Amino acid sequence: MGIAATGGGASRYDVAVVEPDARNRMRLGTHLAGAAQFQSIDELVQHLRPGRVVVAVFGPTLAVPYGFQQIQRINAAYPQLGAVLAVEEVSADVLQAAIRAGARDTVALNDAVALDQAVGRVGELLSGVSAASVPAIADTRPSPGRLIVVFSTKGGVGKSTLAINLGVVLARRTPERVALVDADLQFGDVAVMLGLPPQHTVTDAAASLQFADPELMRNLLARHESGLYVLPAPTEPILGTSLPRAELVGVCSALQAVCGYVVVDTATQFDDSVLGLVEAADDVLLVGNMDIPSVKNLKIGIQALDLAAIAGPKLRLVLNRANTQVKLDVREIEQVLGMRADFPIPSDIAVPIAVNAGVPVVVQEPKAAVTRAIEALATRLMVTDASAEVGAKRRRGRKRARA
Ligand SMILES: Nc1ncnc2c1ncn2[C@@H]1O[C@H](COP(=O)(O)OP(=O)(O)OP(=O)(O)O)[C@@H](O)[C@H]1O
Ligand SMILES: [Mg+2]
Q1: d(Cα 40, Cα 31) in Å, to the nearest integer?
Q2: Which of 5, 162, 218, 257 is most buried, by the most CB atoms less than 10 A from its CB?
Q3: Which pLDDT band holds residue 400 (cuts at 50, 70, 90)?
Q4: Whose Cα sits closest to atom 19 in ligand 1?
């Protein structure tokens, strides 16, 4: 016997309530009409059907160490199971434990609306991604993945557009995980631009750093249908503040331990944390437009931050909307900035159209010139990565030969 289909309308997924306490079980059952009810995780396991997506709502009695252990186990064993935790009160401790156990959401038991939304979101997410299509990925890498930081000294120049589309291209090309981090804590719109429901965010990741747990880091990432893993900015903007440098860099290096590439979209506002990222990065993509204020801003930014000293050879100038009808010439800009503009990205109406559709332009318009330009940029970054690996191997070889 399987679990009765509920909520999700066309029964794309099942919903199950798991709670030993009868009163709590009834409360949850009232919020989630039609959900199958189980007294224990063992009982739920007996009713799981292979290949069928189920959203399992675990009640407050299971929010104890032994319960979390069991949730983690069932979560690892059944990729088609999405765990949601319903507790009396969502405290920081409970949230951490839930994330570690692999729960996709944690909500207050008496918040019927939040519970319903969480179940719907997890059900839709899991039924959209067939488990078979998720490639098996190694748990941790032998060496850290490559950190690519996208930034600019001026707003609205196309940082997020570039970061997202570059991330998608890299994710399609490499069998390893590729993560996109939205480090624009105030106005970050990566999740919106990708049409992803809000899940765990950069600030959750920073709070989890203390556990130094690669599995926890992986669980924080939301998977976009393109295969890109995303760590969004908080949905409630953190006004006037950003994460301390060590935390932001820490989140990125924790992700580098489990990802082949980590692409970071940054805020325009410059602070110590962004400089920390620039220092830690393997590639720094400095984005500018071809108008005079943008070039002036880049020039001032490069000088003020002494970027050449901090970023040196890893700094790459990306001129976005490079074909825009303006009087500035790429060569002139190169002269003013003292940098080669190797990566012109053309302006294309397909970009705003794709943004409004919530689809990355490289997915929506695979043949567009803007897509080809971003693919060329990805190729260059991947080639640099490959030669860096070869160089490192050679150096290791020489060391061994000398020893
Ligand atoms: N190559 C392009 N062709 C056409 N439109 C573009 C292109 N790149 C970006 N845009 C448009 O420019 C606007 C700003 O882009 P985006 O949000 O990526 O910039 P940003 O630098 O991240 O901005 P912010 O500083 O606000 O974070 C968007 O409306 C986007 O659709
Ligand atoms: Mg942006």
Answers
A1: 19
A2: 162
A3: low
A4: 158
Q: Which atom of ligand 1 is nearest to the CA of 154?
A: 25
The helix (run of H) or strand (run of E) holding residue 128 is helix 112-128
> What distance in angstroms lies between residue 158's CA and the mean position of ligand 1's atoms?
3
Write out pLDDT tens, residues 158-185: 999 999 999 999 999 888 899 999 999 8
How much distance in Å is there from the Cα of 187 to the middle of ligand 2?
7
Q: Given a cut of 90, is residue 284 above it in pLDDT?
A: yes
Number of residues assigned to the chain: 403
The whole-angstrom separation of Cα 318 and Cα 321 is 10
Question: What do you get for the CA distance between the two ends of the chain, in Å?
Answer: 65
Return the H-helix or E-strand segment holding 212: none
DSSP 63-82: -SHHHHHHHHHHHHH-TTEE
**pLDDT tier at 130 (50, 70, 90 boundaries)?**
very low
The dihedrals phi and psi of 15, each to the nearest 5 degrees, come to -125, 135
Q: How far is the CA of 184 from the centre of ligand 1 (A)?
A: 14
pLDDT band at 125 (very low <50, low <70, confident <90, very high): confident
> Which of 172, 150, 146, 173 lies closest to 161 in space, CA to CA?
150
182-204 pLDDT, tens per residue? Answer: 999 888 889 989 988 877 889 88
Beta bridge mates, 106: 85
CA 261 to chain centre: 11
Give the neighbor-by-neighbor strand order of the sheet with 222-223: 222-223, 229-231, 178-182, 261-265, 146-151, 283-288, 315-320, 343-345
pTM: 0.70
Token output for 380: 């260059």
Testing ligand 1's pocket by substitution, the residue of 351, 356, 374 carrying the most ligand atoms inside 8 A of its CB is 351
**Separation of alpha carbons 177 and 211, rounded Å:** 21
% of the chain with per-residue pLDDT over 70: 87
State the distance from the centre of ligand 1 to the C-alpha of 321, rounded, in angstroms.
9
pLDDT on residue 318: 93
b/e map 84-104, b = 16+ CB within 10 Å? bbbbeebeeebbbbbbbbbbb
Ligand 1 atom, smallest distance to 163 CA: 18
